Amino acid sequence: MSIEPDPDLPAPAEPSSDDSTDAGSNRSAVDVAEPEPDSEAESEAESADGVEVPRPPLWRRTFERARSYWLLGPEPFGGAIGLFVTGCFMFYYVVHFGTLTSDVHRGYGDSAFDIGLYDQGLWLLSHFHAPYITEMGRNLFGDHTQFLLVALVPFYWIRPDATTLLWIQAAALAAGAIPVYMLSMRRFANPWFATVFAGAFLLHPALGQTNLENFHPDALLVPIIGFAIYAAIENKPRMFLVFCVLAFLGKEDVILILLPLIIWFAWRRNRRLGITIALGAFAYTIFATYGVMRSLIGVPTLNQGRIPFGGISGTAKEIVKKPADFVKYLIKGDSPNGRPFYVWQLIAPTGLMFLIAPEIALTAVLVIGTNVLSNFGYQHLIAYHYTMVILPALSLGTVYAVSKLKKQTYRKVAVAIVGIASVWTAYLWGPLPFSLHHTVPHWSPSYPAVTAIDEVRHKLPPNAVVSAYYSFVPHIDHRKEVYMWPNPFHAVLWGTYKQEGQRLPQADRVQYLMLPADLTDHPEVLDEIRNQFDVVAQSSNAVLYKRKGT
Fold it and tell me: Does this model's pTM top 0.85?
């Protein structure tokens, strides 16, 4: 295949930037070409009597540029169809996963970790309380500096319910297709290519799989990182800076995905701004971990134990002294198919087309590397949220790579490969209706066991202090104190994990217990305190206990 340094974009738009950009300059060597003005928008045209026609307003010029570059392209009819089809894909994605995850929630199919944490946190914030999450014994922002959650508070003023978060998550993940579509139009001015690339993003098995894993604010980062990558490639400094700032407000460890992108931006686009943003990224990460998190929970992170061989130094020693054992660790792993299969599931949906020019896709290397290295098995399974932030780099990196092909025929073949690979891998590993394993086991909201639990749940007073089974918690956590059983009678995953197994002082404040009728989670703890509580409501699937004398 023939590859050029930077392809000429089809009319009406020329490339917005060139990869040979002077890194010290604020503009690329190839300036952005203005779209051809129409007869009504000519800025310097004169009428028949020699009077100059006024320059069109800024909004009109901006609209025309946007329409020409990444909305409709040179053929408005084909562009409109591409937009419509892509919009339908996104709409279906939101409705499908919003409905499915909401049904899973209503059927008690999710848990305190993690949707319950964020549901209680947003309820507290929406009532102007400190977001101390009693389900885990930590401040919400001490667990992770996910300040973007504050933007969701108004939604809880309107509809305070855990399913609100699930719909927001589905919408955020679907919105990740927007920068993919935009970059495709900027690079190819071909709505059909753009539709295939955006559709491939939505079909990626990891996107749908992670959408099913409770709720995680990482979903908000997917479109934000996508727009940051778009801005970097298209050399839009202000846009790049804005979305980098938004990304850092999403999570303290987002530097792992942004730092390689910032380095690329400094190398290819704007050295001065890139270095400035990189320094700011390091400074903010230190502030977020050692300033915010350590001040709130006493330690800068709770994830240091996920580094194998006793930490960074131990891993380095293992690589040097026992390289064969280290390779064996990476190959075998602790997931059913091993770590290499995890990587294969990430890259196969792209048809490996990102390898044509892999520099953008490689900006995900630090996150992929940490996920593969981690001894925490969930990090190298595509069904968990640790994979979310990788997907924009792979998808936009594939668009960027294919745009490097010189001949249109090669581009068409590459786009076809991406489309076929995305559909095939979605069939193999995705959770979509046409997928091989599309069934998501859960109780429907009308299932008898669900109605039996609801019957007991409705007997719980709204402000009572309660300890409840983990799948019951997300339905009763709109209160200041709610604990995930067996907390606080027997600490599990509590605080900074220094009190595990101990009875916490908060145990004396618990007024109610809401537990399954056939409790298998620490039943011995219930046996120890059973004489302190009376049964006040019971069904085939749940029992509500009330402390005596309250």
Answer: yes
